[in-house]
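Ticket #4471: structure output looks truncated?

Reporter: J.K.
Steps to reproduce: submitted the chain below (79 residues) through the standard prediction queue, then opened the result file.
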Amino acid sequence: MTLDLLRLKAERVARGLTQDELAARLGWKRPKYAKRENGIVAIGADELALIVDALGLEKKEMYIFFTHDVDNRERKITA
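Returned output as attached by the reporter:
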């Protein structure tokens, strides 16, 4: 599984939050949050749990931020 950073940004934007505002909710500075949202720094499980809370989601909804990668061997390639 892969963390879907575009979904993370979409959820933030859907709630009308800037990176600054979400970072403030987390007790972080904007650059710390921005590096994670932009994939420069990996988001740890504990950080993701904090972000989910700051977005007002329940922990059980955390799955929405993950995608399932399909191995190339499993992809149907059409010519």
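Triage note (M.O.): checked the attachment and the full token line is present. The mean pLDDT is 89.
Status: closed, working as intended.
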